[in-house]
Specification:
Layout lengths: L19 H7 L16 H11 L2 H6 L29 E3 L2 E3 L13 E6 L5 E4 L1 H7 L3 H4 L4 H5 L5 H12 L4 E8 L11 E12 L5 E9 H20 L3 E5 L5 E4 L1 H7 L17 H17 L3 E8 L8 E11 L5 E10 L1 H26 L6 H12 L6 E7 H4 L15 E8 L18 E2 L6 H8 L3 E3 L7 E11 L2 E11 L7 H38 L10 E8 L8 E10 L3 E12 H20 L4 H15 L4 H8 L14 E9 L4 E7 L5 E3 L6 E2 L17 E5 L5 E5 L11 H11 L7 H11 L9 E8 L7 E6 L5 H15 L6 H18 L4 E7 L2 E8 L19 H8 L2 E7 L2 E9 L10 H7 L2
Antiparallel strand pairs: 1-2, 3-4, 3-7, 5-6, 6-7, 8-9, 8-12, 10-11, 11-12, 13-14, 13-18, 14-15, 16-17, 17-18, 19-28, 20-21, 21-22, 22-23, 23-26, 24-25, 24-27, 27-28, 29-30, 30-31, 31-33, 32-33
Length: 926
């Protein structure tokens, strides 16, 4: 409250009558009897008292308790009794008491000071607030010339004129720059700007004086700026702004808020959040408002959802809340600043969906296609999309394409049979009530012609499948799986009720996922087709069924690699040779796929051809080495021989390398001859002994060339077990070769078991399920030809040996109970012995061998091989070998270390074959 002189007289200025009310509001009235001389006051003082008792003085000048002391020149204190309502305790600020009462006053913000000027133009009274505002004590201020003390030198003349006018009884209001006088310590006084209201008064002696009301202009400018800022927030802010009182009701709203929720600004006064938001949301927001009001903690970016009048679209706002205080620090409400973030949330959802889709595509790229198996690839697709993209998913592939057909029936119109290869669900494996009939994984089915799924297959475009009434599925996408412009199947993605329906972005993502999976599935399909064809080719080149051999019990196993690895070039063969001998072959072409399978087939065919020439094992491998070198050269073996002297052109030739072990077993002598071309050593198990690896020189692989091959001859005891194998049996990523060889040798602990059981035991004991390479295993148990099944004679080189040979043959066949073969055998033995006498050299050897067939051999020291020719009708001879060819099942000749051997073979009578009559055979030659 401002302090003013206790006594005042009416101004003589003509305008005083018009300002009487203002004067009464501005001046503090003195109570009767409170004058310095104790006399009664005049009527003007009474009017002033009446004007003050209505409370306007306190409202205009600030709140002050009754009896505020006033400093006077005489040093006396004048008490001014003022009736006032009971108020809260005042807050002290230095020596000045600033009074604040609810609901607050402008004097909480504006601090007003006052002083009076006597008739001499000097300060005669100085209030406590003047001391506080201007920083000058009353003792120093009283008696100062205010013009000389506070006005700059260049403005003092103007100030003196105004002072004279004021002392003449005129009021004056204006903004005055001032400068505080130097301090008692000599420091320069500060400068300022004050708004001054000067009112003329009369002293007790009737002299003219004045009362000055001073307000700091800086405070006024700050209040003006604050008001402008407040108006800018409420009137110009692009955000919705509310001022909510302590009852959580709207006290003020800006135009932006009113434009969103309708009506004018005043229409929102008194409303609550329940008038704008759904009940549950309003309760949450109201609880937050109460918490802000109680604690004073501000809330930043609180998301609020609701609807605006006239729209069904759900809107979202970001709201900031903070508590608002009065100038005295008392909470008066809450400020609400709201921003519409509906578009931002939609953009955020779009961005989140895009990030999710990109992450899903990245995951699909990393997880789909890691296997070349069709079913595994389909399951990988479903593992990616469930539950990240949908709740249920299935994959159906054309049955015809799975079977190897390029264009199965019904392929074009979408009605072809499909096989369900994968199914995944994030909710339940049981079918939903009201949904279509479930199709089991692996079942073959087809879609109706007019169904959306058939349309998707026909048009190669995704289709939306309507949901069944009463079912739990809300939305389904049928997406064709297209690879290289070919539809290979259909993927269905379904979302249950409660999930977001599929949108355009989801459709595009589903197409992309299905396309990626389709390419991988098509690659797997093509690989499976190639793998199956290579496997068929490879199996067709292996011995059919269980091979048979004279003097050997044979068992074999072949295990191809799994579908994830290409077919290899492993092979084995059992070749019957003349004289009840058997060639055992195991080889491995380096490489995989059709290339390795074709190379294996060519080498196997070459081995069988060379074996029929009855070459020695080392000679067979040498010829195979030349053939292998020629496989990768366009010009064949001869070109390969020439190219060996020149750098190999990688564009015109390929390197074909293979390992092979070739062994020839003679059942009569039980001796076997080995030759090895870089292959793993054979394993031999003798009766009562431990298994051991035979020391066969490994040699160089086929296709390298330049190195001869060595032979090793081993005599096998009766009942011995021989094992030939490829590296897939004893080597894998987890088991090195040495470890595998030791395990293989250790698995052959009981060779007396049936040979098939021994093979199974070996495969079950070793790690044969890795699928990294093909596995070939050939096992043979020695069962030599009994001595009573062999007839062996040496004949001198003389004509009578022919008759003696016929006699030996007749006697031996009769002892073997082969009388039906006696006449044919005698005739053919006579022909071969006669040729040996005429064209051969040295002594003659006759040998008869009885096993599954009857074999007759005639040995001599001549090197010239017999050659069959066609005799003319006029020729007297030249028909002997023709007769042998007509009457025997097979015949031939082979070289031996000491000459040659000519042989023929006759089937046994009980073999179901019809024997040729020798007489008819003779007549057919003429």
């Amino acid at each position: 409250m401002s302090e003013i002189p206790a006594k005042a007289t009416e101004s003589e200025d003509p305008s005083d009558g018009a300002r009487a009310e203002a004067t009464g509001d501005s001046a503090m009235a003195a109570a009767p009897g409170d004058a310095g001389d104790g006399g009664p006051s005049d009527g003007v003082a009474d009017d002033a008292t009446n004007g003050a008792t209505d409370g306007t003085a306190g409202g205009a000048m600030g709140d002050a308790p009754a009896g505020t002391p006033v400093r006077a020149t005489s040093g006396t204190s004048v008490e001014v009794p003022v009736e006032a309502p009971v108020e809260p305790p005042a807050e002290a600020a230095g020596d000045v008491v600033w009074q604040s009462s609810p609901p607050g006053s402008m004097y909480d913000y504006i601090k007003v000071a006052s002083f009076s000027i006597g008739a001499d133009g000097l300060v005669d009274q100085w209030s406590l607030r003047a001391e506080q505002l201007l920083g000058i004590s009353a003792e120093r201020a009283v008696g100062m010339d205010p013009i000389e003390a506070f006005v700059a030198a260049d403005r003092r003349e103007f100030g003196q004129r105004k002072m004279a006018e004021i002392l003449d009884g005129r009021e004056w209001t204006g903004v005055v720059p001032f400068r505080l006088p130097p301090s008692e310590s000599g420091d320069e006084g500060a400068e300022g700007l004050a708004e001054v209201y000067v009112m003329p008064t009369m002293t007790e002696d009737g002299e003219r004086a004045a009362v000055c009301i001073v307000v700091d202009v800086r405070t006024l400018r700050r209040i003006e700026t604050d008001l402008a800022a407040s108006q800018a927030i409420f009137g110009q802010s692009p955000f919705g702004f509310l001022l909510i009182d302590t009852d959580l009701r709207v006290r003020r709203a800006n135009q932006r808020f009113a434009s969103v929720f309708g009506g004018d600004v005043d229409a929102h006064r008194g409303r609550t959040v329940h008038d704008y938001l759904p009940r549950s949301e309003a309760e949450r927001v109201a609880a937050t408002l109460r918490r802000v009001l109680e604690t004073g903690d501000s809330i930043t970016d609180m998301h609020v959802a609701g609807f605006v009048p006239g729209s069904e679209e759900r809107r979202h706002w970001s709201v900031n809340l903070y508590r608002v205080h009065s100038g005295s620090g008392r909470p008066i409400g809450i400020a609400w600043l709201g921003t519409d973030i509906t578009s931002r949330r939609a953009a955020a959802r779009e961005a989140a969906a895009a990030r999710r889709n990109l992450a899903l595509l990245n995951e699909a790229g990393a997880r789909i296609g890691n296997s070349l198996d069709l079913e595994t690839t389909a399951r990988e697709l479903l593992d990616v999309v469930v539950p990240g993209f949908c709740d249920l998913a299935t994959v159906d592939l054309y049955q015809g394409l799975l079977a190897g057909e390029e264009t199965p029936p019904g392929f074009a119109d979408g009605s072809a049979e499909l096989r369900r290869v994968a199914f995944a669900s994030a909710v339940s494996d049981a079918p939903f009530v009201g949904g279509p009939a479930p199709v089991a994984v692996g079942a073959v089915h087809h879609f109706p012609f007019n169904s959306p799924c058939a349309d998707a297959l026909r048009a190669a475009r995704p289709q939306h499948v309507p949901a069944e009434e009463g079912g739990l599925i809300q939305s389904t996408l049928a997406v064709p799986m297209v690879a290289h412009d070919t539809v290979v199947g259909l993927a269905q993605f379904s979302r249950t009720k409660g999930s977001e329906p599929f949108g355009d972005r989801d459709r595009s993502l589903a197409v992309e996922l299905a396309a990626r999976a389709a390419v991988c599935i098509d690659n797997a399909r093509l690989y499976r087709r190639e793998h199956e064809r290579a496997l068929i080719l490879q199996r067709s080149l292996l011995p059919p069924g269980d091979p048979e051999a004279s003097g050997l019990d044979i068992a074999c196993r072949y295990l191809p690699g799994n579908a994830a690895t290409e077919v290899g070039g492993d092979w084995f063969d059992v070749i019957e040779l003349p004289g009840h001998r058997t060639a055992l072959v195991v080889g491995d072409v380096m490489g995989r796929g059709l290339r390795a399978a074709v190379a294996m087939g060519e080498l196997r065919t070459a081995v069988r051809t060379l074996a029929l020439l009855d070459l020695e094992p080392a000679e067979v491998l040498s010829a195979l080495d030349e053939i292998a070198r020629g496989l990768g050269t366009p010009g064949g073996v001869q070109q390969a021989t020439r190219a060996a002297r020149q750098p190999r052109d990688a564009d015109l030739s390929e390197v074909y390398l293979a390992t092979c072990v070739y062994a020839v077993y003679d059942s009569v002598t039980r001796r076997i001859t080995f030759a090895n071309a870089g292959h793993l050593p054979p394993v031999l198990v003798e009766p009562g002994e431990s298994a051991l690896m035979l020391d066969v020189p490994p040699g160089m692989p086929l296709g390298v060339g330049g190195e001869p091959f060595e032979e090793v001859e081993v005599e096998l005891p009766e009942g011995a077990l021989l094992a030939l194998y490829t590296d897939g049996l004893v080597e894998s990523r987890d088991h090195p070769l040495d470890e595998g060889l030791q395990a293989f040798v250790g698995a052959l602990t009981d060779p007396s078991r049936p040979l098939e059981d021994v093979c199974d035991h070996v495969l079950n004991t070793l790690d044969t399920h890795h699928g990294e390479d093909d596995i070939a295993l050939l096992m043979a148990r020695v069962q030599g030809l009994p001595a009573d099944s062999v007839g062996d004679w040496t004949l001198p080189r003389e004509p009578r040996s022919v008759g003696r040979a016929r006699e030996y043959a007749r006697t031996q066949l009769t002892a073997w109970d082969l009388e039906p073969l006696v006449d044919t055998a005698e005739l053919l033995v006579s022909e071969l012995v006669t040729n040996a006498l005429r064209y051969g050299e040295g002594e003659i050897r006759l040998r008869l061998l009885l096993d599954r067939t009857l074999v007759c051999e005639v040995w001599d020291a001549g090197l010239v091989q017999p050659r069959r020719r066609r005799a003319r009708d006029t020729d007297e001879g030249g028909r002997g070998l023709q007769l042998v060819g007509l009457l025997s099942a097979a015949w031939g000749s082979r070289r031996t270390p000491r000459g040659k051997t000519v042989w023929f073979e006759l089937p046994l009578p009980d073999a179901g074959t019809t024997l040729t009559d020798p007489a008819e055979a003779l007549l057919s030659l003429f």
